[in-house]
Structures are given as C-alpha cells and as structure tokens.
Design a protein that fits this description.
Layout (H helix, E strand, L loop, with lengths): L15 H7 L2 H10 L5 H22 L11 H11 L4 H14 L3 H6 L2 H8 L5 H18 L8 H4 L7 H12 L8 H11 L11 H10 L4 H17 L18 H10 L1
Helix pairs in contact: 2-3, 2-12, 3-13, 4-5, 4-10, 7-8, 11-13
The chain binds iron/sulfur cluster.
Length: 264
C-alpha cells in the first residue's frame, strides 16, 4: 500500500521512546559487531539516542529540493536518475524543465536522443544519462503500461539504474521503510560507528543489513531518517573536512570522540 508522507522531510519530531519501538537495536548491534564495531550495543544505544536531534537538525537545515515536495513516483524516479553521480544543486537548476517536458514515461519514449541530450547536457555523463532515460521511457511504456513499476527489481530494469535509485523511489514516493546506501551514508555511518566499510558499500549485504536495522520501521520516520543522514553527509560530515563541532550527532560519534582525544 502506498502511504503519503509528510513533505518535504517526513516526521522530524520523534521521541527517544518512540524510536525504541521503531529501531531494531538488537539486530543493529549484531550487524555492527560483524563490522568490528567496538562496544556495539552501547554504540547503537548512543546513536539511537542522538536521532531526535538529528531529525530536528533536518527540519532546520535540510535541503528543500523540489523532488522532496512530491510523492509522485514518476517525478521522484526521474529526479533519482538525474541525481546519479551529480550534485543536487545542479539537478535543481534544470529539474522543472525536465519534468515539464517529460511528464510521463511515454513523453520520454517519444523524445529524440538529441532532445534528451540537450536537456540534460549541463549535468555531464550525457551519453550514459541519455541511454538510461531512453530505456526508462521505452521499458516503462512497453512493459508497464506507462506506469512506474512498484518493485525494486522492476525499477532497476533500465540500464544503469541500481539499488539506490530504485529504493529511494520506493521510500520517498511510496512510503516503504527501507534503507539507502550511497557514499554519504557509508561515510557517516562508517565514522559514527568506526565501522570498517568495504570498497563498495552499496554492494555489501552486511552494510545493507546494518542500515536496515537502523532505519525506523515507520514510513514518515524512515523518510526523515534517510534524508537526515543524506543531508548530514552532504553538508556537515563532508569527505575531507567534517564540521564535527556543529554536528547534531557528535555525542554519538566515534570519529569525533577519537579526534577530540587526539587533540587533547
Ligand atoms: S561528529 Fe563529525 S565525523 Fe561524526 S558524524 Fe558528525 S560530522 Fe561526521
């Protein structure tokens, strides 16, 4: 069943007591131990305690992109394709043009390669993106009656559409509580838990299992939780220069605690 979320961020006021019911802490600790996290039970406990502050931070600092203001699976899916290997700010500049020009899969199916390339050229990876978009148009039109399919596996049918885009569509458009894994998630969770991330975290069953256990089992909170980690990774917990002093989850972060101790 599709659930309409509170837009743009989902529910951002959640108590620790509620999170106790929504997050599988026991499973999260088991998965964290597999990733060689020390004191996994306490680490998970501390992280869950910090989530209410993380969600409050999202409400104040989260990015209000236009694709976060809709539950329409087509608009959300299209945004996820445009966001592949691309910054949100770049996609924001041309997103409304693309949505207007391609209001449904049929419109994309009927468009010429040149027209698609011209619309998306500012994002780079033009040939790749064009090929993916063309397949999205033709596969959804021919195999799904012009609708956006309703399963992760089917959403991954077009060329180079992976788990992240498919799962993000199910989570953000259809209110399915599911975990996302990309570079931002891997960095934030890796630092907070001192979790040994594999080379390709988005292909790791163990990383997914940890994130699945940590993701609150309620669609509007799963939405806010995932958006919060995503935005924290993009705005605060950046690859080279994390701004730990203004981070809402620093009290639960192994990286912060250890760098602070080194500085003393
Ligand atoms: S405290 Fe620093 S390292 Fe830890 S999550 Fe926040 S920004 Fe990232």
């Amino acid at each position: 069943m599709t659930q309409r979320s509170v837009l743009p961020f989902g529910r951002t006021e959640v108590s620790s007591e509620e999170l106790e019911q929504l997050i599988d802490k026991e499973e999260a600790a088991i998965q964290a131990e597999k990733g060689e996290v020390e004191n996994a039970v306490q680490q998970v406990e501390d992280f869950v305690d910090s989530v209410p502050d993380l969600l409050k931070w999202l409400e104040q600092q989260g990015r209000k992109y236009p694709w976060r203001a809709t539950n329409d699976p087509w608009k959300v899916y299209l945004a996820e394709i445009l966001l592949q290997r691309t910054r949100g700010d770049a996609v924001e500049k041309m997103y409304s043009d693309v949505v207007q020009r391609f209001p449904n899969p049929e419109a994309l199916d009927e468009a010429s390669e040149e027209e698609i390339k011209e619309l998306v050229h500012s994002l780079g990876f033009v040939n790749h993106r064009q090929k993916t978009l063309k397949e999205v148009g033709s596969i959804f039109t021919e195999q799904f009656n012009g609708e956006v399919p309703d399963s992760v596996e089917e959403l991954k049918k077009p060329w180079r559409v992976g788990d992240y885009s498919a799962r993000a569509t199910q989570l953000f458009a259809r209110g399915r509580s599911m975990a996302l894994v990309d570079a931002n998630f891997a960095r934030v969770i890796g630092r907070v838990f001192d979790y040994e991330m594999p080379q390709q975290p988005h292909k790791s069953k163990d990383v997914y299992a940890l994130l699945e256990a940590l993701t609150p089992d309620e669609p509007d909170v799963a939405r806010s939780f995932n958006l919060a980690i995503l935005d924290l990774g993009a705005l605060v917990c950046t690859p080279d220069d994390p701004d730990c002093e203004s981070c809402p989850i620093s009290s639960a972060c192994h990286y912060y605690q250890s760098t602070r101790m080194e500085g003393n």
